[in-house]
Amino acid sequence: MNMRHLEIFLRVIEQGGFTKAALAMRLTQPTLSAAVRQLEESLETQLLNRLGREVVPTTAGRLLCGYARRIFALRQEALSELQALQAGEQGQLLLGGSTIPGTYILPQLVAGFSRDFPQIKVNLRLAATETIVSALREQLLELALVGGAVDDRRFDVIPCFGDELVVIVPLGHPWAGYENISEKELADVPMLLRERGSASRRAFELRLTEHGVDIPAERLIAEVGGNEALKQGVLAGLGVAVISKLAVVGEVNRRELVALPFAAGPLRRSFYLIQVKGFKLSVAAERFKALVLSRF
Amino acid sequence: MNMRHLEIFLRVIEQGGFTKAALAMRLTQPTLSAAVRQLEESLETQLLNRLGREVVPTTAGRLLCGYARRIFALRQEALSELQALQAGEQGQLLLGGSTIPGTYILPQLVAGFSRDFPQIKVNLRLAATETIVSALREQLLELALVGGAVDDRRFDVIPCFGDELVVIVPLGHPWAGYENISEKELADVPMLLRERGSASRRAFELRLTEHGVDIPAERLIAEVGGNEALKQGVLAGLGVAVISKLAVVGEVNRRELVALPFAAGPLRRSFYLIQVKGFKLSVAAERFKALVLSRF
DNA sequence: GCATATTCATCGATAAAACCTATAGCTAAT
DNA sequence: ATTAGCTATAGGTTTTATCGATGAATATGC
After folding, report:
1. Do A192 and A233 form a contact (C-beta atoms < 8 A)?
2. Given A58, A71, A77, which is nearest B75 (Cβ)?
């Protein structure tokens, strides 16, 4: 029982004859005769009563007719939905972001996207880069903007946007009036750092190594698991910290914290737009990707 | 989009790969590759993400997958129902009968049939032979047992069962003790007859013509549109009547009426099992037909 | 890091089917 | 009885489905 046979069968019933149906389908009558015969043979049931003048379905034929109509309705519905999906008229965008880009970059982009495509539901998930990467592989996400470099050939990675790491100190700190801070000076003050594995910590440590600086363990006051906690620590006077400039724009403007660039030049780090290589993006995701790259 | 393509597509998703699905379907892997490619081309949408290790559906693929499953569920349901119909495990028997056979023959047959096949619903419709014939043509009925001969090549007519026409008189009537009544005697008494077109009236008039007897119009007290009314008329003493023996079995046994055969020999008339020629009977109807013929 | 194994895509050939033309056979209407 | 209209069948052609062999890409094991 294939679609073609069912379609021919339906048309013969609707048109009330093989010849009429053949005309309507732009086929010849023997083709329809053969198709219906094959259908009847495969079901081992007579489906149509061929009377001289008219062709009417048997009981079995009427039963099958109802099912065939439902099957074609489903097929039509599937085709319509696929087309709508293809045209981007509906759909869901499963988006991921690691902390910094997810907090300070993606929300604005998503806002713009939702304005342009209000019919697409956006689901933004924030988590550590590693978690995001796993979620991508498991198809829980389609696209993500993360702060950590992803060294995995199974992913397409596009550097995109970026950030500068700055040293933050509380307002009354001796460095508060400085223009910048040399890498060496950082070795001699109490410091708060993000946890190991954090992309910003890695970038910072790389910079120190480049300048031959090593932070003694006793200067490391705390390892903090989040940017908010890091800021709170600095505000409380526990020490200085290195953090994304984006994360302290508010505090700096409100003169609660002072952000100092590095003396050897700004410590930039890139964000990365990542997706699973070979994975076809949905139309929604494709559009979001285009938006991100155009804004960048 | 045909069933084969959908089936292959589903199996590839279920098995998680082309090769595995090919093995499960006893086909080769290139066949499945080609089928899915064609499906994708016809829909102008990528349905599967081919990663090195695994094959997973895209958003569009998941959407189609759901529809495909529903389509196959419908197909399966249709096949099951057709099989059940074929096996006679369910179904409806649309049966017709003209007055006499429908009242005195069919009910017993239907009772026996329902005992044998309780899962089949029987719908018995009683009407004049002409009405039954129309209903058969319009597929409102499949099979009927009628008293009138059907002279129409579009029908299969099987003579089946039969009846004897008798003269009935009330208990106190002068003829009540007679063995039989000659055709000539009938011309001289008040008579009640069924309406013109009734099969029993036709049979009776044919017999009179054969014996050169003609009933004068003044002897015809009434034309009555039903066998019950005919009996009531005779019971009321309006006259004598000719009626199916089957219709007066009760009254004769209760000694309310006396039934007299014709002197020239019993006036038999046949009933006919009719169906539209070329019309495939349902399994239920086929079984009923077999039952009728076996009881006959 | 390199060979091996696994997997999907592609190509050419063949088997199967879908389809067409011509025609026979049947029914219904003139 | 003849004709018109319809379906079934036969035989041949085109299209589609399938297979076997092979290549390219990716993961696995040493």
Report:
1. yes
2. A71
Find, among B276, B243, B273, the residue nearest to B98 by Cα: B273
My answer on whether A113 and A190 are in the same domain is: no
pTM value surpassing 0.90: no
Q: Give how many domains chain B has, as a whole number.
A: 3
Minimum Cα–Cα distance from A81: chain B residue: B63
Write out the residue range of the structural domain in which residue B36 sits: 3-86
Residue A83: partners with Cβ closer than 8 Å, 6 or more residues away: none
Residue numbers in chain A where pLDDT is lower than 70: none
Instruction: Give the Cα separation of B133 and A282 in Å (integer).
Output: 61
Please check the confidence at residue B197 and state whether its pLDDT lies above 80: no
Whole-angstrom distance, CA of residue B294 vs CA of residue B158: 13
C-alpha span between A182 and A185 (Å, rounded) = 6
The answer to whether residues A172 and A222 belong to one domain is: yes
Each residue's pLDDT tens digit, B161-179:
989 999 999 988 889 888 8
Q: Which of A37, A59, A85 is the last residue of a domain?
A: A85
Protein-proximal positions, strand D, CB < 7 A: 5-11, 17-21, 25-28
